[in-house]
Write a structure and sequence with these properties.
AspRS_core (chains A, B), 19 helices, OB fold (Dihydrolipoamide Acetyltransferase, E2P), BirA Bifunctional Protein, domain 2, Gyrase A, domain 2, homodimer, ligase (chains A, B), nucleotide-binding (chains A, B), 29% helix, 3 domains
Chain lengths: 648, 648
């Protein structure tokens, strides 16, 4: 009995972490029940998980309704307790298997109790009710156990580098080296299964409900102008290379020009960014394009799709999503992907500082776009230490070349700040009031060029929130999903290396805002675009635009504004002259979206076989050397770094 | 009235070719109707094609039920008749638009009648009944026309390189250069839409009905042993390359070892074969893998999936599919992918030839596997000329080093053949009878090694069938779909360049046939495998196997039989030791399958943007040059062919 109780605790613990794997209410009487998805959609039976195989049930579905049935279970040995019982695991759950104690079953007992854990076995036996008081309500099969009659070891398991339990800590490098073992963990199984389910629902929404056509586009293509981040693929034609495209952008526009009307694809995309944390050299986007659509049309399509595919257990999604202009996002959050789950917005205090006799403030305000901005960190004085404040200031100085001055509101609401002596009591009071600051808050002030000051404070807003949360201050509800559309981006931005030249804020196919067409030839830097970003909890999860469908405008943007070599895109320009309908679309970053939905810290947790941040597959050791002989058919040879004329 | 009649004929013609584009019964009263897919599946509304856009209807859906309604249509100008009417086209159909003849509409009339064909327009107007007798029953909108009230040209169209009509012949090179125009054709629209629909149904079957998990696997991987046809992708690590895998084989096995149980993926695969007709450097397979499954399980899964996703208009699919052993396929059809839509099977006439005093026959029969085989081409004498017969003989001599001797049965059933004088009247009679030959048939005899003689006759069987069909003899029903499983392949084959060494008949992960395990170490060349091919109308459309799940066996096959460097697969060998369940799977060639379903002559007709047979994208001109500077970050340089030490 003591043993049984121990097991009960053990399986309860395991179930607590394995829970997400359970696909549905798994008692087979439930499995036959007809479920309505949404009022106007489909009536659908749950999937049959035992079709085409010899098992009668999964390890997660037996319940008291099955008592007396002869069953065959296939699974992994998760736990052994002397020669009394074992626990069998599969993707669906756990089942307790009782070993018969009579002499003629000694062989079977020995085999199952001595096999190594994680061995693969088949057990045939009878479902029996657990003894009274032994039910485990937290285990899907907790009402029953299976009395073994026959068993076979299908494959043994050697000693593993780590135990298959979510609770067992292991380094990410080890997890990636033994990815096939990590995939057995409840968390990864759950993530991959939920991803598959969400994508399937997206497809049903697009294909079955709205007539979208799933079209596969090539991944062996040619370089796009400015495609410095595109992997190249040598071919057997000397000197000729394919490129792995960063998105199907050109193809989807060409499909629309081909009259396809509604295109979508769950598209593999490639980007060579060298080593960047939480980026992958290949990633997946939900790629959508439509004819005759405007910004509002794409937005409601995406809202509808996300609502339709949203996992029930994450609660309902409200739509339409809020919309914010790029200008407002920058002013209030200092970033184009605001995390709207918490306040601490940036406030403009320029007017209050107009009369302050501080040299650098006055100097700033004389410059174009000069301003003074501030944020208030509620309760900051209680948690953020002087040292941390210093390093925050240092960070934005480095990153944005922006000075930030802190004010700590003492318990008596008096100011502790280098600013203190330059401001009148009245001004301080009015600032405290304007910022709605209370005692023990921290205020951060930044005087500078508008975008720079806001960006710096936006960065500090996020850092401060993370710090407060580290100290247990609940700021962002981890179960909340704040979607937000950010719109009215600039069409062009000054180039980083030469502010006199313009580059596309997003890509050169983005249409200008209809209200700004007059500015196009006179002041292109002021033109807003018809680009829209979808933001979720402060991460960009999608971006799209209404595209340019006029060939002359497209040529002018490429040639006259962006100074690109238009010959590389001559096929697109010609296509735009050939009866191109007005069109627009969007691409959602699927990896990031799923990661946020499941609450994973990294997109690596929602990708079956991710690369390390250095682009390596730690399991197979890719990338690898290729012999000079094999390279010869591609007419290339490796230049050892030491002989290269310039560095990387 | 004459004009109206002309148009009726014209649109009838257009509709005849555009028909396949029509997605469903398109009268909107029909669109609301609830349709049952299959008894135990889903009840589903047809897709809403007008959601998210400003059009009220597509160009293919208006009918008399809409008379009196104000509508907005968006489409392409397909046809103009003076300033009387125009025809508007979209992906869904055609609608006739009547131009109002009153003076105040002269502007609208002028605009629509003078715009270039294929211009993109929006027309708003009223649906009216066609005048009595003017209905066009072959046009989905043939009961009505739209009286225009307002119209705008959204984009004009320049003169196109070819008209958008299926009837207009154009070279494939031109079609590929202007692929976006070719996609406007009814045939390509229909192919791409049907492909999307079939794939969606496959997903529903796998995911929703049978609990398969859609998992994306990497395409940037490392070379597999013997992966000479894998494209390489240079990285920023000097000398290190990714490989684009030919299939997700390793990943799907690792997912199964990871306990995923049921995996599928519509997977992009890559193969660098240089220039091969009707091959593409990237292609798509329906990739499936399951735990705890046997050959019969995979076969019924695939049969179920194909039946479920099979287009209704192609008639029902019978299952289970017939099964044939590799040995029988070779004996009867001379090929491992028999076209069973017609007879003309290969027959063994060795016993009849045992006593024939012909030196080369006797010599052949003394050798191992020596035999005499024959096929009968019914009515061949009427259609196949002497010259054609000569070149058929020449072909197999070249290709298989196999002599074939023809017998022409004259109208009086007498033999015309070089064999004639060597055979007794009785033997000739017995052969004619055994072959069920009639007057004016042609018999082809081949004496030689079994596989060689069969292969030669198998090739001639197909060539003869094609020739007879060219003369109008109906042999293969173009609407028939003959699926066939070919099983019991050999596990290993002698290497082409060294008959003493063995190579995998399919791939090194294929499990041996359980009945042949005893032969594994004694006579591996005789071991049959658990590989199965799916053949459709004489084309291989799929292949799979039960895999080796025992690490020792896998190592023995790789190391001792195949002499491969096992270190390249050490991660897989280690995974097999870590609790790998028995498993198996299959991959279907999606492009080929869809091409056969739609009756397309090439897989290029079911791929949106195919490469030419030389691997070029004729539209964008990929592959292209990459500057030495851009290659430098990948530590490679191009070797001009003239400086290469050895040829290609």
């Amino acid at each position: 009995m003591a043993l049984r109780s121990n097991l009960k605790i053990l399986t309860t613990c395991m179930l607590a972490v394995r829970r997400p794997v359970v696909l549905e209410n798994s008692c087979s009487t439930h499995r036959k029940y007809i479920r309505t998805y949404t009022p106007n959609l489909t009536v659908q039976r749950t999937a049959d998980l035992n079709s085409f195989v010899a098992r009668t049930h999964t390890c997660g579905e037996l319940c008291s309704a099955h008592v007396g049935q002869e069953v065959a279970l296939y699974g992994w040995l998760q736990y052994q307790r002397h020669d009394l019982f074992v626990v069998l695991r599969d993707f669906h759950g756990l089942t307790q298997v009782i070993l018969p104690q009579d002499e003629k079953c000694s062989q079977l007992r020995k085999m199952l109790s001595e096999a190594s854990l994680e061995s693969v076995v088949v057990v045939k036996g009878t479902v029996i009710r657990r003894p009274p008081g032994q039910d485990n309500p937290r285990m899907s099969t907790g009402e029953i156990e299976v009395l073994a009659k026959e068993a076979h070891i299908l494959n043994t398991c050697k000693k593993l580098p780590f135990e298959i339990k979510d609770a067992v800590k292991k380094t990410e490098a080890l997890r990636m080296q033994y990815r096939y073992l990590d995939i057995r963990s409840g968390q990864l199984q759950s993530n991959l299964r939920l991803r598959s389910k969400i994508v399937m629902k997206m497809r049903e929404y697009l294909c079955n409900l709205h007539g979208f056509v799933d079209v596969e586009t090539p991944t062996l293509f040619k370089r796009t102008p400015g495609g410095a981040k595109e992997f190249v693929v040598p071919t057997r034609e000397p000197g000729k290379f394919y490129s792995l495209p960063q998105s199907p952008q050109q193809f989807k526009q060409l499909l629309i020009i081909g009259g396809l009307d509604r295109y979508f694809q769950i598209a593999r995309c490639y980007r060579d960014e060298g080593s960047k944390p939480d980026r992958q050299p290949e990633f997946t986007q939900v790629d959508i394009e439509m004819s005759f659509v405007d910004q509002a049309g794409i937005q409601s399509l995406v809202e509808g799709m996300l609502r339709f595919s949203w996992p029930e257990e994450k609660g309902p999604l409200q739509a339409p999503f809020p919309v914010m202009s790029y200008a407002d996002a920058m002013s209030s959050y200092g970033v184009d992907k605001p995390d709207t789950r918490f306040e601490m917005k940036i406030q403009d205090v320029t007017s209050q500082f107009r009369e302050v006799q501080l040299g650098y403030v006055q100097e700033t305000l004389r410059k174009p776009h000069g301003c003074v901005k501030a944020i208030c960190i509620p309760g900051g004085a209680k948690f953020i230490k002087r040292k941390e404040l210093d390093s925050m200031q240092e960070l934005v100085k480095q990153q944005y070349n922006q000075e930030v001055v802190p004010v700590i509101l003492r318990a008596d609401s008096s100011w502790k700040s280098p600013l203190e002596k330059f401001l009148s009591a009245k001004l301080k009071e009015s600032l405290t009031e304007a910022m709605e600051a209370k005692s023990e808050d921290i205020l951060l002030f930044a005087a500078g060029e508008h975008i720079r000051a806001c960006s710096a404070l936006g960065k500090l807003r996020l850092d401060a929130a993370a710090q407060l949360e580290e100290y247990g201050v609940p700021l962002r509800d981890p179960t909340a999903f704040h979607f937000l559309w950010v719109v009215d981006f600039p069409l062009f931005l000054p180039k980083e290396d030469n502010e006199l030249e313009l580059e596309s804020a997003h890509h050169p196919f983005t249409a200008p805002h209809p209200e700004d067409t007059a500015l196009l030839h006179t002041d292109p830097a002021k033109v807003r675009s018809q680009h829209y970003d979808l933001v979720l909890n402060g991460s960009e999860v999608g971006g799209g635009s209404i595209r340019i469908h006029n060939s002359n405008l497209q040529r002018w943007v490429l040639q006259d504004v962006l100074k690109e070599d238009v010959s590389l895109l001559s096929h697109l320009l010609e296509a735009l002259q050939s009866g191109a309908p007005p069109h627009g679309g969007i691409a959602l970053g699927l990896d990031r979206l799923i990661a946020i939905i499941v609450g994973a810290p990294s997109i690596r947790d929602v990708i079956a076989f991710p690369k390390s941040f250095r682009g390596r597959d730690l399991m197979s050791n890719a990338p690898d050397m290729v012999s000079a002989e094999d390279l010869q058919q591609y007419h290339i040879q490796v230049i050892p770094p030491c002989t290269e004329s310039s560095g990387k």
